[in-house]
Amino acid sequence: MTVRVEGLAFAYHGRPVLRGVDLTWGDGQLVCLLGANGAGKTTLFRCVLGLQTGYRGRVWLDDTDLAQRSPRDIARSIAYLPQTERSAFNYTVAQVALMGTYPLTSALIGPRPAQLARVRAALDQLGLTHLAERGFQELSGGERQSVLVARALAQSSGGLLLDEPTASLDFGNGWRLMTTARRLADEGRLVVVSTHDPTLALRFADHVTVLDEGQVLADGPADQVVTSALIEQVYKLTAEVTTVKVETGLVPVVVPVE
Questions:
Q1: How far apart are CA 128 and CA 126, in angstroms?
Q2: Residue 14 DSSP SS3
């Protein structure tokens, strides 16, 4: 799955949110999308998914213009995890994960064995198998977020867009989620993760795209993009990009110094 954006612009009620965005994300990449609150990250995701109409410019999924693809076709190509989601019904964890497979079947046919196998595999990857029959509304916020990630995995699309997936997770589950994202990219998928944590970007991402006031401020390899100067410009915070020694070697971290 390749996502290509050309001259993308969007405004809410006359207020510009995206301004001439150009970028390309490709197969086998784990991309981290960085930017301060209000930079346009979620709006960019929604435009790429065809959920936001009225934009200017063009969005391509592989070699097809997004405007020429149906919502079901888009869902077969790319899965989405929004920042927040509520359900009026207390579906089980397994049922929520199964919803990710709906673009692959007809409404007149029940879930096939292959779909159920995808659900089991997704729950197992995220350590959620023991919660399969629990009600979604009975879970903690972090557990719900993990289930929604499992739903995206069960969709078996070539690409995944995850909007701040670690925001409500504890340190361990957040780290495990990013490890899963890294593995999925290594298996050939495009995985794009919106995050406010530049250390996660340095540790896991191949590629980093930075939005600032709706424009692409930086775009390229993680170790070249995430710098002290960029952190100060985007987050208005003095920080040092350095490394720490662990048993497996040196790992990069971003450390605030004020």
A1: 6
A2: coil
